[in-house]
Amino acid sequence: MTLLLLCVTAYLIGSIPFGLLLTRAAGLGDIRAIGSGNIGATNVLRTGKKGLAAATLLLDALKGTVVVIFVRYYGHGGVFAAALAVFLGHLFPIWLGFKGGKGVATGLGVFYGLAWPMGAASCAVWLASAMLFRVSSLAALITFIAAPVLAWHFEGKRTALLAAIMAALVFWKHRENIRRLLAGTEPRIGRKQK
Predict the structure, then answer these.
(1) Gyration radius (Cα) of the chain, Å
(2) Which of 140, 164, 137 has its CA nearest to residue 36?
(3) Residues 6+ apart with CB under 8 A from 16
(4) b vs e for 3-38, b when ≥16 Cβ sit within 10 Å of the residue's Cβ?
(5) Is the pTM of this model over 0.90?
(6) Does an H or E element contain 161, and which?
(7) pLDDT tens-digit series, residues 57-78
(8) Quick check: 9 and 81 in contact, CB under 8 A?
């Protein structure tokens, strides 16, 4: 029962749509009507509001980090279940009809909570890929391909399995991006869209 309550709480925290809340508070309307229609930081950046995009990125990441650190601090054995629950909350938020973000920031936040070197290495992969290719979705896909390997190196098999599950979900959420990448039509980082 405790594990179930923990996972439900983690899921609800993950479900908080910071991108949507911040853009509405800033008077920009519904972020889902802009660009890709996604609630994440990359789409918020397409509004031209870099500060809002940075805040969305940070808050989405903190959801994952805070849940994992809290569960670990209180010594509960359900850290992996809670990590997956907060991640699923972001992908499929109850408040938005289960249509959420793509999980990149929250996933990186989870990695930081599990092991900061793993989180730092994953962020370094994302930054290097983003600087090289200037395409956020491609950087995300490369990062989550690397994530299970990094998890195995820093934390072992169980964390690598969790990272592999998360990577599969990230790829599934990016299926439209993958089609556009293959067609050469995927937007580049920082391009404004209406």
Answers:
(1) 16
(2) 137
(3) 59, 63, 89, 93, 95
(4) eeebbebbbebbbbbbbbebbeeeebeebbebbbeb
(5) yes
(6) helix 157-173
(7) 999 999 999 999 999 888 678 9
(8) no
